[in-house]
TrEMBL record:
Its EC number is 1.3.1.76. This is precorrin-2 dehydrogenase. It catalyses: precorrin-2 + NAD(+) = sirohydrochlorin + NADH + 2 H(+). Keywords: NAD, Oxidoreductase, Porphyrin biosynthesis. It holds the Pfam family Sirohm_synth_M. Pathway: Porphyrin-containing compound metabolism; siroheme biosynthesis; sirohydrochlorin from precorrin-2: step 1/1. PANTHER family: SIROHEME BIOSYNTHESIS PROTEIN MET8 (PTHR35330:SF1). The keyword NAD applies. It comes from the Bacteria. The lineage of its organism: Bacteria, Pseudomonadati, Bacteroidota, Cytophagia, Cytophagales. It comes from Sandaracinomonas limnophila.
Length: 192
Protein backbone atom coordinates (compact mmCIF):
# COMPACT_ATOMS: atom_id res chain seq x y z
CA UNK A 1 0.00 0.00 0.00
CA UNK A 2 1.18 3.54 -0.67
CA UNK A 3 2.38 5.79 2.17
CA UNK A 4 -0.36 7.24 4.36
CA UNK A 5 -0.64 10.40 6.46
CA UNK A 6 -0.98 9.31 10.10
CA UNK A 7 -1.46 12.79 11.57
CA UNK A 8 -4.80 13.34 13.31
CA UNK A 9 -6.30 16.82 12.86
CA UNK A 10 -7.85 18.42 15.93
CA UNK A 11 -9.26 21.96 16.19
CA UNK A 12 -7.78 23.61 19.24
CA UNK A 13 -9.56 26.25 21.30
CA UNK A 14 -6.36 28.23 21.19
CA UNK A 15 -7.73 31.09 23.33
CA UNK A 16 -7.96 28.62 26.24
CA UNK A 17 -4.32 27.56 25.96
CA UNK A 18 -1.11 29.29 26.98
CA UNK A 19 1.25 29.36 24.00
CA UNK A 20 4.95 30.25 24.14
CA UNK A 21 6.68 31.42 20.95
CA UNK A 22 10.46 31.39 21.27
CA UNK A 23 11.89 34.02 18.91
CA UNK A 24 10.56 37.30 17.53
CA UNK A 25 11.70 37.35 13.90
CA UNK A 26 10.28 36.43 10.50
CA UNK A 27 9.36 32.87 11.35
CA UNK A 28 7.83 33.92 14.69
CA UNK A 29 5.69 36.41 12.77
CA UNK A 30 4.61 33.72 10.30
CA UNK A 31 3.60 31.25 13.03
CA UNK A 32 1.95 33.92 15.21
CA UNK A 33 0.07 35.12 12.13
CA UNK A 34 -1.18 31.60 11.51
CA UNK A 35 -2.59 31.44 15.06
CA UNK A 36 -3.88 35.02 15.42
CA UNK A 37 -5.57 35.01 12.02
CA UNK A 38 -7.66 32.10 13.28
CA UNK A 39 -8.27 33.47 16.77
CA UNK A 40 -7.44 37.05 17.70
CA UNK A 41 -7.75 36.21 21.42
CA UNK A 42 -4.97 33.58 21.22
CA UNK A 43 -2.85 33.81 24.36
CA UNK A 44 0.66 34.10 22.97
CA UNK A 45 3.79 34.93 24.94
CA UNK A 46 6.90 35.71 22.90
CA UNK A 47 10.38 35.52 24.38
CA UNK A 48 13.30 36.89 22.35
CA UNK A 49 16.31 39.16 22.90
CA UNK A 50 15.45 40.95 19.65
CA UNK A 51 12.09 41.59 17.95
CA UNK A 52 11.78 42.56 14.30
CA UNK A 53 9.74 45.71 13.61
CA UNK A 54 7.29 43.72 11.46
CA UNK A 55 6.59 41.32 14.31
CA UNK A 56 6.04 44.17 16.78
CA UNK A 57 3.77 46.01 14.35
CA UNK A 58 1.65 42.91 13.73
CA UNK A 59 1.12 41.81 17.33
CA UNK A 60 0.51 45.23 18.91
CA UNK A 61 -3.27 45.20 18.39
CA UNK A 62 -3.89 41.75 19.84
CA UNK A 63 -5.04 41.91 23.47
CA UNK A 64 -3.64 38.61 24.73
CA UNK A 65 -0.11 38.90 23.34
CA UNK A 66 2.78 39.36 25.79
CA UNK A 67 6.39 40.10 24.90
CA UNK A 68 9.40 39.16 27.03
CA UNK A 69 12.54 40.90 25.78
CA UNK A 70 15.43 38.55 26.66
CA UNK A 71 16.88 35.14 25.74
CA UNK A 72 14.80 32.03 26.51
CA UNK A 73 14.96 30.61 30.04
CA UNK A 74 13.61 27.16 31.03
CA UNK A 75 11.31 28.92 33.52
CA UNK A 76 9.46 30.42 30.51
CA UNK A 77 7.81 27.02 30.10
CA UNK A 78 6.02 27.31 33.46
CA UNK A 79 2.25 27.46 32.93
CA UNK A 80 2.53 26.90 29.17
CA UNK A 81 0.75 24.17 27.21
CA UNK A 82 2.04 24.66 23.68
CA UNK A 83 5.52 25.80 22.61
CA UNK A 84 6.63 26.97 19.16
CA UNK A 85 10.35 27.45 18.49
CA UNK A 86 11.27 29.89 15.72
CA UNK A 87 14.82 31.04 16.42
CA UNK A 88 17.97 30.66 14.32
CA UNK A 89 19.53 28.46 17.05
CA UNK A 90 19.00 24.74 16.24
CA UNK A 91 20.86 23.67 19.39
CA UNK A 92 18.49 25.75 21.55
CA UNK A 93 15.52 24.12 19.78
CA UNK A 94 16.78 20.64 20.63
CA UNK A 95 17.21 21.69 24.27
CA UNK A 96 13.68 23.19 24.41
CA UNK A 97 12.22 20.09 22.78
CA UNK A 98 13.79 17.95 25.54
CA UNK A 99 12.49 20.27 28.26
CA UNK A 100 9.02 20.06 26.70
CA UNK A 101 9.15 16.26 26.63
CA UNK A 102 10.02 16.19 30.33
CA UNK A 103 7.03 18.47 31.06
CA UNK A 104 4.60 16.83 28.62
CA UNK A 105 4.24 20.06 26.65
CA UNK A 106 3.36 20.00 22.97
CA UNK A 107 6.22 21.42 20.94
CA UNK A 108 6.50 22.61 17.33
CA UNK A 109 9.89 23.53 15.96
CA UNK A 110 9.17 25.56 12.87
CA UNK A 111 10.37 23.98 9.67
CA UNK A 112 11.91 21.02 11.56
CA UNK A 113 9.53 18.05 11.25
CA UNK A 114 11.68 15.66 13.30
CA UNK A 115 11.35 17.85 16.40
CA UNK A 116 7.61 18.53 16.06
CA UNK A 117 4.83 16.91 18.11
CA UNK A 118 2.38 18.59 15.74
CA UNK A 119 2.49 20.59 12.52
CA UNK A 120 0.69 23.79 11.71
CA UNK A 121 -1.65 23.30 8.76
CA UNK A 122 -2.89 25.40 5.90
CA UNK A 123 -6.33 26.72 6.77
CA UNK A 124 -9.38 27.35 4.60
CA UNK A 125 -12.02 29.48 6.29
CA UNK A 126 -15.54 30.38 5.15
CA UNK A 127 -17.36 31.80 8.14
CA UNK A 128 -17.94 28.90 10.51
CA UNK A 129 -16.51 26.33 8.12
CA UNK A 130 -12.85 25.57 8.58
CA UNK A 131 -10.71 23.02 6.73
CA UNK A 132 -7.20 22.13 7.88
CA UNK A 133 -4.79 20.85 5.21
CA UNK A 134 -1.73 18.70 5.81
CA UNK A 135 0.64 17.31 3.22
CA UNK A 136 2.34 15.19 5.89
CA UNK A 137 5.20 17.66 5.77
CA UNK A 138 5.83 16.87 2.09
CA UNK A 139 5.11 20.30 0.63
CA UNK A 140 3.80 23.31 2.58
CA UNK A 141 3.81 25.18 -0.73
CA UNK A 142 1.41 22.69 -2.29
CA UNK A 143 -0.74 22.93 0.88
CA UNK A 144 -0.90 26.68 0.25
CA UNK A 145 -1.98 26.07 -3.36
CA UNK A 146 -4.69 23.59 -2.31
CA UNK A 147 -5.93 26.14 0.24
CA UNK A 148 -6.26 28.80 -2.48
CA UNK A 149 -8.06 26.33 -4.76
CA UNK A 150 -10.58 25.31 -2.06
CA UNK A 151 -11.10 28.94 -1.08
CA UNK A 152 -12.11 29.67 -4.67
CA UNK A 153 -14.48 26.74 -5.17
CA UNK A 154 -16.29 26.67 -1.81
CA UNK A 155 -19.10 29.25 -2.00
CA UNK A 156 -19.35 31.95 0.68
CA UNK A 157 -23.01 30.94 1.05
CA UNK A 158 -21.92 27.75 2.81
CA UNK A 159 -22.00 29.80 6.01
CA UNK A 160 -25.70 30.60 5.46
CA UNK A 161 -26.38 26.86 5.11
CA UNK A 162 -24.54 26.26 8.37
CA UNK A 163 -26.65 28.87 10.19
CA UNK A 164 -29.85 27.38 8.78
CA UNK A 165 -28.79 23.86 9.74
CA UNK A 166 -28.05 25.00 13.28
CA UNK A 167 -31.62 26.30 13.61
CA UNK A 168 -33.13 23.14 12.12
CA UNK A 169 -30.95 20.97 14.34
CA UNK A 170 -32.21 22.72 17.48
CA UNK A 171 -35.86 22.38 16.42
CA UNK A 172 -35.82 18.70 15.41
CA UNK A 173 -37.75 16.35 17.65
CA UNK A 174 -37.60 12.58 17.92
CA UNK A 175 -34.95 10.11 18.98
CA UNK A 176 -31.31 10.36 17.94
CA UNK A 177 -31.56 7.96 14.97
CA UNK A 178 -34.65 9.77 13.66
CA UNK A 179 -32.84 13.14 13.92
CA UNK A 180 -29.86 11.82 11.97
CA UNK A 181 -32.22 10.53 9.26
CA UNK A 182 -33.91 13.92 8.94
CA UNK A 183 -30.61 15.86 8.96
CA UNK A 184 -29.22 13.62 6.22
CA UNK A 185 -32.35 14.16 4.16
CA UNK A 186 -32.25 17.97 4.51
CA UNK A 187 -28.54 18.26 3.63
CA UNK A 188 -28.73 15.94 0.57
CA UNK A 189 -28.69 18.83 -1.89
CA UNK A 190 -26.23 21.15 -0.12
CA UNK A 191 -23.03 19.60 -1.49
CA UNK A 192 -23.31 18.36 -5.06
C1 LIG B 1 1.09 25.13 6.49
C2 LIG B 1 2.17 26.08 6.96
C3 LIG B 1 1.69 26.65 8.28
C4 LIG B 1 2.51 27.82 8.77
O1 LIG B 1 3.70 27.69 8.95
O2 LIG B 1 1.87 28.87 8.92
C5 LIG B 1 3.49 25.33 7.08
N1 LIG B 1 4.42 25.86 6.31
C6 LIG B 1 3.94 26.88 5.56
C7 LIG B 1 4.66 27.56 4.53
C8 LIG B 1 6.01 27.33 4.11
N2 LIG B 1 6.97 26.76 4.87
C9 LIG B 1 8.15 26.72 4.13
C10 LIG B 1 7.93 27.36 2.89
C11 LIG B 1 9.02 27.63 1.82
C12 LIG B 1 8.91 26.70 0.67
C13 LIG B 1 9.16 25.23 0.99
O3 LIG B 1 10.22 24.93 1.58
O4 LIG B 1 8.28 24.40 0.63
C14 LIG B 1 6.57 27.70 2.85
C15 LIG B 1 5.78 28.30 1.70
C16 LIG B 1 5.51 29.75 1.82
O5 LIG B 1 5.81 30.40 2.85
O6 LIG B 1 4.99 30.30 0.83
C17 LIG B 1 9.44 26.21 4.62
C18 LIG B 1 9.45 24.89 5.31
N3 LIG B 1 8.44 24.36 6.07
C19 LIG B 1 8.85 23.18 6.60
C20 LIG B 1 10.19 22.94 6.19
C21 LIG B 1 11.09 21.79 6.65
C22 LIG B 1 10.84 20.51 5.96
O7 LIG B 1 9.84 20.33 5.26
O8 LIG B 1 11.68 19.61 6.12
C23 LIG B 1 10.56 24.01 5.36
C24 LIG B 1 11.89 24.24 4.64
C25 LIG B 1 12.76 25.21 5.48
C26 LIG B 1 14.13 25.38 4.91
O9 LIG B 1 14.26 25.78 3.76
O10 LIG B 1 15.07 25.10 5.67
C27 LIG B 1 8.08 22.35 7.47
C28 LIG B 1 6.76 22.53 7.90
N4 LIG B 1 5.94 23.54 7.48
C29 LIG B 1 4.67 23.27 7.91
C30 LIG B 1 3.61 24.17 7.84
C31 LIG B 1 4.57 21.91 8.47
C32 LIG B 1 4.06 20.92 7.40
C33 LIG B 1 2.66 21.26 6.88
C34 LIG B 1 2.23 20.30 5.81
O11 LIG B 1 2.11 19.11 6.12
O12 LIG B 1 1.96 20.72 4.69
C35 LIG B 1 6.03 21.61 8.84
C36 LIG B 1 6.44 20.14 8.67
C37 LIG B 1 6.32 21.93 10.32
C38 LIG B 1 5.79 23.27 10.79
O13 LIG B 1 6.49 24.26 10.54
O14 LIG B 1 4.72 23.28 11.45
C39 LIG B 1 2.52 27.20 5.93
C40 LIG B 1 1.56 27.26 4.71
C41 LIG B 1 1.06 28.68 4.60
C42 LIG B 1 -0.26 28.84 3.96
O15 LIG B 1 -1.17 28.01 4.09
O16 LIG B 1 -0.46 29.93 3.40
N1 LIG C 1 12.65 33.67 7.20
C1 LIG C 1 12.16 32.62 6.63
O1 LIG C 1 11.13 32.69 5.96
C2 LIG C 1 12.85 31.28 6.79
C3 LIG C 1 12.54 30.24 5.93
C4 LIG C 1 13.11 29.00 6.15
C5 LIG C 1 13.98 28.82 7.21
N2 LIG C 1 14.30 29.85 8.03
C6 LIG C 1 15.21 29.61 9.16
O2 LIG C 1 14.48 29.84 10.39
C7 LIG C 1 15.34 30.45 11.36
C8 LIG C 1 14.73 31.75 11.85
O3 LIG C 1 14.60 32.64 10.74
P1 LIG C 1 14.07 34.13 10.91
O4 LIG C 1 14.07 34.72 9.56
O5 LIG C 1 12.81 34.15 11.71
O6 LIG C 1 15.25 34.76 11.77
P2 LIG C 1 15.22 36.15 12.53
O7 LIG C 1 16.62 36.62 12.63
O8 LIG C 1 14.19 37.06 11.93
O9 LIG C 1 14.67 35.77 13.97
C9 LIG C 1 15.38 34.98 14.88
C10 LIG C 1 14.80 35.28 16.24
O10 LIG C 1 15.35 34.36 17.19
C11 LIG C 1 15.59 35.10 18.38
N3 LIG C 1 16.54 34.39 19.24
C12 LIG C 1 17.86 34.16 19.05
N4 LIG C 1 18.38 33.56 20.15
C13 LIG C 1 17.38 33.41 21.04
C14 LIG C 1 17.28 32.87 22.35
N5 LIG C 1 18.34 32.33 22.99
N6 LIG C 1 16.07 32.88 22.98
C15 LIG C 1 14.98 33.42 22.36
N7 LIG C 1 15.01 33.93 21.11
C16 LIG C 1 16.20 33.93 20.47
C17 LIG C 1 16.11 36.43 17.88
O11 LIG C 1 16.07 37.43 18.90
C18 LIG C 1 15.13 36.69 16.76
O12 LIG C 1 13.97 37.30 17.26
C19 LIG C 1 16.68 30.64 10.67
O13 LIG C 1 17.52 29.54 11.07
C20 LIG C 1 16.38 30.59 9.20
O14 LIG C 1 17.48 30.10 8.46
C21 LIG C 1 13.75 31.07 7.83
Amino acid sequence: MSETNKLFPIFLKISQLEVLIVGGGNVALEKAGALLNNCEEAKLTFVAPFFREETLAFVKDFPEVKLINRAFLPSDLEGKQVVICTTDMPELHREIKQLCEAKNLLCNVADTPDLCDFYLGSVVQKGNLKLGISTNGKSPTLAKRIKAYLNDIIPDEIDISLDQMEKVRKQLKGDFQEKIKQLNEITKGVVK
